[in-house]
């Protein structure tokens, strides 16, 4: 059985609301979602804001960077790192975070939420 997944694009904020090479938190569809303006790479990313390690809403305040070619975010509290593309923990633990597609159009940031 094939499941077709639709994406609903939800306006999160203005692109100017997110500083270069930093993240902010937006409340979308009842969830805290971290949105990152990774200017050094020319890319935008979004993940859940909850760090699964200690259950803290903190990833939007984490440091972004790269591990090889992999874009990542490090939790500001205990430095667990996660891929901004896949959500996999890059620190060697079994944690994983939810990632979301992002698009910027006419200066506005949209986050894609899956709908079945």
Describe the SSE topology.
Layout: E1 6-14, E2 22-28, E3 31-38, E4 43-48, E5 50-51, E6 56-57, E7 63-67, E8 70-74, E9 81-83, E10 99-100, E11 102-105, E12 108-115
Antiparallel strand pairs: 1-12, 2-3, 3-4, 4-10, 5-6, 7-8, 8-9, 11-12
Instruction: Assign an overall shape.
Output: globular
Largest sheet: 4 strands, antiparallel
CATH superfamily: Rieske [2Fe-2S] iron-sulphur domain
CATH architecture: 3-layer Sandwich
Task: Describe the model.
The chain has strands at residues 6-14, 22-28, 31-38, 43-48, 50-51, 56-57, 63-67, 70-74, 81-83, 99-100, 102-105, 108-115. The strands form 4 sheets. Strands 2-3-4-10 form a 4-stranded antiparallel β-sheet, with no helix packed on it. Strands 1-12-11 form a 3-stranded antiparallel β-sheet, with no helix packed on it. Strands 7-8-9 form a 3-stranded antiparallel β-sheet, with no helix packed on it. The protein is mostly beta strands and 116 residues long. It contains no helices and 12 strands. The chain has a single domain, classed as Rieske Iron-sulfur Protein. The chain is globular. The two termini are 14 Å apart.
Structure described in brief:
The chain is mainly beta. The chain is built from no helices and twelve strands. It has one domain (17-115): Rieske [2Fe-2S] iron-sulphur domain (Rieske Iron-sulfur Protein, 3-layer Sandwich), CATH 2.102.10.10.
């Amino acid at each position: 059985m094939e499941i077709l997944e639709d994406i609903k694009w939800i306006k999160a904020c203005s692109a100017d609301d997110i500083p270069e090479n930093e993240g902010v938190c937006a409340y979308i569809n009842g969830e805290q979602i971290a949105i990152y303006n990774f200017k050094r790479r020319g890319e935008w990313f979004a993940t859940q804001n909850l760090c699964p390690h200690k259950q803290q809403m903190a990833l939007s305040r984490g440091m972004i960077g790269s591990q090889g070619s992999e874009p990542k975010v490090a939790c500001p509290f205990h430095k667990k790192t996660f891929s901004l593309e896949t959500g996999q923990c890059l620190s060697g633990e079994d944690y994983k975070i939810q990632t979301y597609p992002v698009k910027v159009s006419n200066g506005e940031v949209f986050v894609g939420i899956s709908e079945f």
